[in-house]
Write a structure and sequence with these properties.
Blueprint lengths: L3 H10 L6 H5 L5 H13 L7 H13 L3 H13 L7 H15 L4 H13 L7 H11 L4 H8 L4 H13 L7
Helix pairs in contact: 1-3, 3-4, 4-5, 5-6, 6-7, 7-8, 8-9, 8-10
Length: about 170
């Protein structure tokens, strides 16, 4: 299994990946690493192992795989496959930000929610609202509720920032 397409076929079929040699072929292939993380996360073709899922998501995320960045952020936020601590929320915000800056809508919504609640980041309603605007429809309910707690000036600032925002290349 040395292509992302092959990794996806293994994932869809639920093929067992017990052979360590097969896993070693994934070194450096971010898409295949993401799919292997999915397999461990969901227990598709391998026994469910959230720590192992976290490891494979991290490998893919560090290479710029946006879905792996998002899933790793979620694991840190929920404590799945990681230890729950304040650092975990800080790490969640960091991974969500990397994916959000690549214009990944689910991460923009989650990052906005973290800013609104002050979880892992300093509470900032303007920043939260901006990310929720960028996320679009998936954050509409949260954005509307947040808007009721903000001044018109804060909302105008967030709207201006969202309008000026541009995706950034991954580090």
């Amino acid at each position: 299994m040395n292509t992302p397409a092959e990794a996806a076929r293994y994932y869809v079929r639920g093929t067992k990946l017990a052979d360590v040699a097969e896993r070693k072929k994934l070194a450096g292939d971010a898409a295949a690493q993401f799919w292997l993380g999915q397999m461990y996360d969901l227990g598709k073709g391998v026994p469910q192992n959230l720590s192992e899922a976290s490891l494979w998501y991290r490998r893919a995320a560090e290479q710029g795989n946006v879905m792996a960045q998002h899933n790793l952020g979620h694991m840190y936020e929920s404590g799945e496959g990681t230890k729950v601590s304040e650092y975990s929320l800080t790490a969640a915000a960091s991974w969500y930000r990397r994916a959000a800056e690549l214009d990944y809508k689910p991460s923009q919504a989650n990052l906005g929610a973290l800013y609104a609640a002050g979880r892992g980041v300093r509470r900032d309603f303007v920043e939260a609202y901006m990310w929720m605007l960028l996320a679009g429809a998936i954050a509409d309910n949260n954005r509307e509720a947040l808007g009721k707690r903000m001044t018109p000036q804060q909302i105008a600032t967030a709207e201006r920032q969202a309008k000026e925002w541009k995706p950034k290349p991954d580090r």
